[in-house]
Amino acid sequence: IFSCRDLVDRRVLVLIALIDPSVTSAAVNAPTNVSLSSYNMDLVLRWDPPEGAAAGVRYTAGLLRGRSFRNFTEDHCVNVSSTWCDLHPQTISPYGSYTGQVKALLGDQSSDWASSLPVTLDIDTVIGPPNVTLLSSGTTMDVSIRDPEFAVSKFKEVYNQVQYHLTYWEDGRREQADNVNNQSHSLVTLSGLKARTRYCVQVQVSTRNPRPSGVSRPVCERTGESDGAPWAVALLTFLLLAAILALGLVARLYRRSISHVLCPRDALPSHLKEYLLAPPTSVVKVWSYSQPEEFHQVSVAIPQEDGGTGPTEPEAA
């Protein structure tokens, strides 16, 4: 049983609802499943639309540093229709703790702020894979590792203690891979590889971040010709040194005999010296040899006073 006053109040509420339905409608619901993620030191806020959201709902997102609302900034994504927002300005610290917040907007109405869980960048960021290049020389291969690039700061400035973990295998034999772990330098040399063989390498980085980096894509390179087995080089070196030592020992033990052979004390006989100093007989014969001179006999007739001619002695010409 209602009193007259209750009936009047109910009629007034019905009349107001007929004139302006928005007065009695429920407030705009807040976005759901709000999450803040970080990849290589960026900050991205994502969310789902409110339950039962009407068409045309929009959003405004902001970033809260630490736990104080005084450090809240709302100038990243204002009145946007997308359900994500990039929140990493250049002023954020790689060691800071951040919380993302978002609210829904529908006309003049807005929902309450919905918050994500806090994210501490240097601890929670997901580190991407490094870049890897290979350079082969003979049966060795140099693996050059380039650290991931961060949106804020540099990799080695945030993580000064880095360990590189390498996995390498012959192309097509991934199940027989070998590992080289806990390398502190970004240049690692793989030795003892097979000649003229294609090898593939992957690298992962670990830091004080509880999660290691992503694994780099496989990079492959072929080795060159064999540069000789190390044991063979060592054996040849040993044999050469042994031969030098043996020659030195023999020269020391038989130095007198060797000196007598090279520098004899007895003089050569005089006839042997003359024989050695005399020129060869073939040369003497060549020097003393002369061909006979060729000539033709000529007769000259001289006229006499009585008009006759008389013979004269022949002359050689």
Automatic annotation (TrEMBL):
Ranges where the Fibronectin type-III domain occurs: 30-124, 126-226
Gene Ontology cellular component annotations, sorted alphabetically: plasma membrane
Molecular-function GO term, any one: cytokine receptor activity
Transmembrane segments: 229-250
Transmembrane helix in keyword set: yes
SUPFAM superfamilies: Fibronectin type III
Swiss-Prot/TrEMBL keywords: Membrane, Transmembrane, Transmembrane helix
SMART domains, A to Z: FN3 (SM00060)
PROSITE patterns named among the record's database cross-references: FN3 (PS50853)
Listed name of the protein: Fibronectin type-III domain-containing protein
Species: Tetraodon nigroviridis
